[in-house]
UniProtKB/TrEMBL annotation:
Protein name: Copper-sensing transcriptional repressor CsoR
Record Gene3D superfamilies: Metal-sensitive repressor, helix protomer
Organism: Thermotalea metallivorans
Lineage: Bacteria, Bacillati, Bacillota, Clostridia, Peptostreptococcales
Coiled-coil regions listed in the entry: none
Any Pfam family matching the protein: Trns_repr_metal
CDD domains per record: SaCsoR-like_DUF156
MF term (GO), any: DNA binding
Gene this protein is translated from: csoR_2
Classification via InterPro entries: Metal_Tscrpt_repr, Metal_Tscrpt_repr_sf
A biological-process GO annotation: negative regulation of DNA-templated transcription
Amino acid sequence: MKADDLKIYGMACAACAKAVENAAERFLTNGRYAMEKFIENQWEDCCEGTDGERKSHRPEHVTQALVKRLNKIEGQIRGIRGMIERGTYCDDVLIQIAAVQSAMDSVSKLLLESHMRTCIVDRIQKGDPTVVEEFLKTIHKMMR
């Protein structure tokens, strides 16, 4: 079974399809049902969903930490809007904006660390050579 043949099973990305192709050899002795079950499970964990949108492999506790931080930032931004509407002195508003930017940097660092430990490592282990170039482009955009 080749990676191109796996499109009939709904495999969304080349890396996940390649991982299934590599694992196919192990399932030949267990029959077609075992292979179909494996593909079904792999598809659920595929880095791309059925709609073609890539999915993260980040742990739930990281997702919760990110959402918690973003909720705080959202509150800070609403506060800044209120400060502007009330005519608060510009220096005070700018200090709050700097605090929000620092908080967003913290979110970026946490997400970047999680991305490296999960998504990138997983794609490299699946034999996807494009992940390094993609990651370098992301870092370049973040450093602008």
